[in-house]
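Per your request, structure below.
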């Protein structure tokens, strides 16, 4: 929505600093891990260890066992088919409250956003869901076991499509050992009744979800909220909430909304380097990603850049994505570890030194058992002709 009102204008740096403050990335927060996860509304977690990196970058003195214990203690869950139909790490209370709001996203994702709905045309999908849920109510099962049992019932249908109908349309979590620090394992699916002893809520009104989003990611436009959640037609809901919201404009004239008690730091607030995992919500949760990606947004989200540069994650310098990173391990149980930083703009000597120091701390967290740890910088790979790519500002 574009407006011509007298609402205050927030530039890119102001929006950047606002989200960094709310995401605990201007300074590490001294709060319990469960509190931090709730504040973030949900952490994308299809890579099981991504939330550990995300929390390490946000929390003072975070240790991996804190999150593992929350998962094993059933206080935190790895929930399937949440925002954008992806796996998210959430507090159990938040998942049970918010899953019903996003059911429409899962329904649409199965029917039109995936190939599985088309593969099951002509079959009673409700019956597939009923049978699949019954199997998981009996006991948690791996995805492979669910596929095999459903295939026995519908031998002429694609087994993956049958299982995905259940995974999209039934509220499910993936239970340990998957998602525990230092452990692996196939995805094991469970219903909330079998894993938590509770059912998801029946409220489908998105009001509370929108307010939680704005508190964690705002100020934001209606299109930003929809890009994060994949809910549609939220304009009417935001209008209903308008009396309790603050409004702003961005530099393009789009109307932005925010919760009344949110913080808006000075745009010149120093922002230290931070390492983010590959799918951190901070870079995925706005229609206009320039508040995190800067002038190189189109290049970063273009073809090949994810695999080439950002497969391991991204690095914030002066608050904006300025590099990708990955960890390389030598073979062997305690093989040496190298963290490679891949800038997409040339870094100043001051910035490079600050990034290197943060990289050393992260590598000690990720590879505590390595016999040797090294930080290495690759040459800058960004498009030198792109506007605004003249280097980063020193904090």
């Amino acid at each position: 929505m574009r407006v011509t009102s007298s609402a205050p204008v927030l530039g890119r740096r102001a929006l950047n600093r606002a989200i960094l403050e709310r995401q605990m990335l201007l300074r590490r927060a001294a709060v319990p891990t469960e509190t931090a996860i709730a504040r973030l509304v949900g952490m994308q977690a299809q890579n099981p260890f991504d939330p550990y990196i995300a929390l390490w970058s946000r929390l003072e003195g975070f240790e991996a066992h804190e999150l593992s214990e929350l998962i094993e203690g059933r206080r935190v869950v790895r929930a399937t088919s949440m925002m954008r139909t992806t796996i998210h790490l959430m507090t159990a209370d938040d998942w049970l409250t918010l899953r019903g709001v996003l059911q429409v996203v899962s329904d649409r994702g199965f029917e039109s956003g995936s190939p599985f709905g088309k593969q099951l045309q002509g079959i009673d999908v409700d019956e597939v869901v009923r049978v699949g849920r019954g199997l998981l109510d009996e006991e948690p099962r791996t995805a492979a076991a669910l596929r095999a049992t459903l295939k026995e019932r519908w031998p002429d249908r694609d087994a993956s499509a049958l299982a995905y109908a259940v995974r999209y349309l039934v509220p499910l979590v993936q239970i340990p050992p998957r998602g525990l620090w230092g452990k692996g394992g196939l995805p094991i699916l469970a219903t909330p009744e079998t894993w938590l002893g509770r059912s998801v809520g029946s409220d489908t009104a998105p009001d509370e979800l929108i307010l939680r989003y704005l508190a964690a990611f705002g100020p934001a436009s209606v299109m930003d909220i929809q890009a994060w959640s994949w809910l549609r037609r939220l304009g009417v809901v935001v209008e209903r909430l308008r009396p309790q919201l603050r409004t702003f404009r961005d530099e393009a004239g789009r109307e932005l909304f925010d919760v009344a008690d949110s913080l808006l730091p000075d745009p010149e607030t120093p922002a230290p380097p931070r390492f983010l995992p590959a799918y951190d919500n901070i870079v995925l949760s706005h229609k206009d990603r320039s508040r995190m990606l800067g002038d190189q947004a189109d290049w970063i989200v273009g073809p090949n850049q994810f695999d080439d540069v950002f497969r391991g994650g991204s690095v914030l310098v002066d608050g904006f994505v300025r590099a990708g990173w990955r960890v390389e391990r030598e073979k062997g149980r305690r093989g040496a570890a190298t963290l490679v930083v891949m800038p997409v703009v040339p870094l100043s000597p001051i910035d490079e030194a600050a990034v290197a120091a943060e990289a050393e701390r992260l590598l000690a967290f990720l590879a505590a058992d390595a016999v040797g740890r090294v930080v290495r910088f690759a040459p800058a790979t960004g498009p030198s002709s792109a506007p605004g790519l003249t280097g980063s500002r020193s904090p």
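The radius of gyration is 22 Å.

Regards,
D.
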